[in-house]
Amino acid sequence: MKIELSFCLRHKINCIKVNPVIIKIIIVLLLLFILFNLFRALFIMVSGRDNGRPMSHYLGRRVLFSVVVLVVVIAALKLGYISPNANPTTHIQTQTNIATPHQQSASTKQLLEKQSVYLG
Fold first, then answer.
1. Which of 15, 19, 69, 118 has a CA positioned 20 to 30 A from the CA of residue 55?
2. Neighbours of 44 (CB within 10 A)
3. What is the secondary structure of the chain as a DSSP string?
């Protein structure tokens, strides 16, 4: 918001306030369009039809709109329309010992095996 406010004050114009939800909706729609083009290229590749546009047309469109999404996200971050997630909270896992200790005595030792040898 600071960049937007300083820009408005310097140029003495009315700045447009953009709702962050609108930016997020635009990004989601662009991502859906990218998926649509990806599956369209897949359909052309699997069917093997050559009577329409080539598969590279849809793949190129997908790459172009991926770049557009990146530019929109970076611009929205820099202009302060959306805010990045702060440091995610670390998940601390504490383990409780549920085993009950048991008494040990000298008789819990394993006995040696006894073998009888028949020599005969």
1. 69
2. 19
3. -HHHHHHHHHHT-PPPP--HHHHHHHHHHHHHHHHHHHHHHHHHHHH---SSS-HHHHHHHHHHHHHHHHHHHHHHHHHTSS----SPPP--------PPP----GGGSPPPPP------
The average confidence (pLDDT) of the chain is 77
Are 23 and 75 in contact by the 8 Å Cβ rule? The answer is no
User: How far is Cα 53 from Cα 44, in angstroms, rounded to an integer?
Assistant: 9
Q: In whole angstroms, give the CA distance from residue 18 to residue 82.
A: 10
pTM equals 0.56
Give the other-Cβ count within 10 Å of 42's Cβ.
13
Say what the pLDDT of residue 7 is.
52
